[in-house]
Amino acid sequence: MIASATFSVTREDAQAIDDCWNRIGIHGDKSCPLLSEHIHCRNCAVYSAAATRLLDRYALQQDDRVQVSSAVESEVKTRSLLMFRLGEEWLGLATRSLVEVAPLQAIHSLPHQRSGALLGVANVRGALVACLSLVELLGLDSISNVAPGTRVMPRMLIIAAHGGPVVVPVDEVDGIHAIDEQILDAASRSGTQASARYTRGVLQFRGRSLRWLDEEQLLSAVTRSLT
Question: Residue 67's beta-bridge partner residues?
Fold first, then answer.
């Protein structure tokens, strides 16, 4: 679960892990000498160690930042947003609605699905969790033009929906950032979010146009998609 402190998740952490299963394993060219023994990468100790490492790094561990004085904290109020990418669009979601960021898992489709956003179920630590498409819910274009040679690692966000945890796959996770509430207030008043679904505002952050999601509206839409 997420504590009330500051957390950090970086793309560099993910990039430091050798995802051999995507190169020489079951999702690659299958040249790994261990594959004949283990049949599938998920049975291999190398895969298990990498998965554990990813979970450790993306469990939103508390950042060891130096605490600022209470006087400064009283002057500058911030809100923590997890920033992630879907297709070409960067989005921000309040961390209070987030359980954790997990490695990408296989999604198993369900027969007779009634919702276009419901992708199926995913196995999260032994439990089957409903998996939804934010691309479908938000009406986004899923096509991504990532520069050649750029290595990104898709993730699954586990969010705390009203009926229980729900998994949503994303193309990339940047991290959790504390945003000045004055900037967020200005974004919500700008009116640029009027045509965007489940959106509170749009702001510029580190050279990106970031769509700040309205977590209450989004979670309500998630619940409707599961019923």
Answer: none
